[in-house]
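INTERNAL AUDIT FORM
Audit reference: QA-55
Scope: verify that the stored structure record matches its stored sequence.
Auditor: D.O.
Record contents follow.
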Amino acid sequence: MDGTPTDVAAFILAGGKSTRMGTDKAFVVLDGRTLLARALELARAAASDVRIVGDRAKFAAYAPVVEDVFPGCGPLAGIHAALRASPADLNLILAVDVPFVTLALLQYLMKRARDSPSAMATVVRSGTGWQPLCAVYRRKFADAAERALRAGRYKIDALFDEERTQVISEEVLQAEGFSPDVFRNLNTPDELASASDRNAPR
């Protein structure tokens, strides 16, 4: 896509177990498209280098795949694998199950990250907590992630105190015209059934 930034790599985290959904969330269909297809389209509009973090055998047909260096250690391992594989300093991390995130929001996060070269992570903190799976990380964040993984600490949020973090508050997000509800993720069949583009947060 013309005008797509080349200084950012985008990674879709698709390696979750999808236990509550009962089937692989990446291939769940919402309004006629799989969550993976929606995430890929969004990521490709935001960055020229787009990859999937997950099982190569499952996802290689859709985009280049990065597999966890620390398998079975949750989303932090996915972020770590993405950053270790990335050619870019700035890296957009996007979970496959947040279908209401918009390109405008991703572009806003990337601009904030570019404008804060000392921040290792640019992440929203809303009323429901941190949003680390729709955030921008500098490649060096992988060092802190690896230290935590090797120590058996898998909580992403804990690293935001340890590393230089640019926090975007819910108030700032709303002032920029974004609803915190865009981070709503789909974990269960009921949540999927009640979701559609028609009632997407604005």
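Auditor finding: record pair retrieved intact. The mean pLDDT is 90.
Action required: none
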